[in-house]
Specification:
Homodimer. It comes from Gordonia soli NBRC 108243. One of its GO terms (molecular function) is DNA-binding transcription factor activity. This is Putative TetR family transcriptional regulator. Pfam families: TetR_N (PF00440). The protein has helices at about 5-30, 35-40, 45-50, 55-75, 80-90, 100-110, 110-135, 145-165, 175-185. By secondary structure, the protein is mainly α. It has two domains: about 1-50, Homeodomain-like (Arc Repressor Mutant, subunit A, Orthogonal Bundle), CATH 1.10.10.60; about 55-185, Tetracycline Repressor, domain 2, CATH 1.10.357.10. Helix 1 (about 5-30) packs across helix 4 (about 55-75) and helix 5 runs antiparallel to helix 9 (about 175-185). The longest helix is centred in the middle third of the chain and has 27 residues, at about 110-135.
Length: about 190
């Protein structure tokens, strides 16, 4: 039997992730059945689960990918820029609407909660580092602990995702993000 190249394996993994992202966006976490993931990727369950242990591992791989991408932007440009990117290109983040369903799963499934929190740590760490650097440079307020600012920005991000996922109007959200950005800046 011929050996499959690493490039081909990476390309197949990418196909699976792209198809699964579309499936999760369309059907939500619970509605993205293995059959639907097969249809969305055009691959068999054997091919899919050769790369991922199960549906949860596949979803967490997507979450990890997005957390890394968001962490890179947050580290360089700040979490508010991540939110601006989500607002400007919601189609690139539409699967995050499943976070509404994930909130329920986080409350009821401790193993899922542990895995999700581990994947979310990248974004929080990058945001915390950036805020610390901003505070040291005098750009951010110093009357509130940095950890509180991270939680504040994370809550705003969750609210933005909820608003987008539920189809609410977004016309005035750039002004809201301006306000959020201003609220963390130093006024000294």
């Amino acid at each position: 039997m011929p050996k499959v190249s690493d490039d081909r394996l990476a390309a197949r993994r990418r196909e699976i992730l792209d198809g699964a992202r579309h499936c999760f966006a369309e059907y939500g976490y619970d509605g993205a059945t293995v059959k639907r993931i097969e249809e969305s990727t055009g691959l068999s369950r054997g091919a899919i689960f050769h790369h991922f242990r199960d549906k949860e591992a596949l979803f967490l791989a997507l979450a990890h990918e997005d957390a890394e991408r968001m962490a890179d932007v947050a580290a360089e440009q700040g979490l508010v820029q991540v939110m601006r990117d989500v607002l400007a290109r919601p189609q690139d983040f539409d699967w995050l609407g499943t976070r509404l369903e994930i909130a329920r799963k986080l409350r009821t499934d401790s193993s899922f909660r542990s895995a999700w929190l581990a994947h979310s740590a990248d974004l929080e760490s990058a945001t915390l580092s950036r805020l610390e650097r901003g505070r040291e440079a005098g750009r951010l307020r110093d009357d509130v602990p940095t950890e509180v600012l991270v939680k504040y920005l994370d809550l705003v991000l969750d609210g933005l995702i909820t608003r987008l996922a539920s189809g609410q109007p977004t016309a005035d959200l750039n002004a809201v993000l301006d306000l959020v950005e201003e609220s963390v800046r130093s006024h000294a």
